[in-house]
Amino acid sequence: xxxxxxxxxxxxxxxxxxxxxxxxxxxxxxxxxxxxxxxxxxxxxxxxxxxxxxxxxxxxxxxxxxxxxxxxxxxxxxxxxxxxxxxxxxxxxxxxxxxxxxxxxxxxxxxxxxxxxxxxxxxxxxxxxxxxxxxxxxxxxxxxxxxxxxxxxxxxxxxxxxxxxxxxxxxxxxx
Length: 175
Fold this sequence. Notes:
Blueprint: E1 5-12, E2 23-30, E3 35-39, H1 49-54, H2 57-60, H3 68-79, E4 83-86, H4 89-102, E5 114-115, H5 116-124, H6 131-137, H7 150-165
Parallel strand pairs: 1-4, 4-5
Antiparallel strand pairs: 1-2, 2-3
Helix pairs in contact: 5-6, 5-7, 6-7
């Protein structure tokens, strides 16, 4: 039996929640492929301009953002008991934890996360530099326009997982 997984990616205003950096885009993909993506309004007072440029914050900013309390409830519900899978999911877990706590929720995901870059390196037998490079080395087609979007990067993580593990698994699925 494999553990229940949810694929995750975020776009953030920086890399350090202790310095006031926050998430603004959250994507979760359930093992069955159901996709969820939300935008919330971050406090930009401590934003790192490089992070905003890399994530194309101002170019992609939607006219309507989601209520953070509602998003926090949904994220907490969808991640409860799950292994977070992504590229460096420890980063996502730290940012999500700060977001959930700020909006009255608590993280209840499994403490062991799964990094698709590490999985890919194990399968390939050599180092790769980043999730996109890992996906391409595994023969996956990676759409250009999705780079540094939460949903695009979560899709790539799911693709790598399936390429390496054989399937996206749900609780109770035999392996």
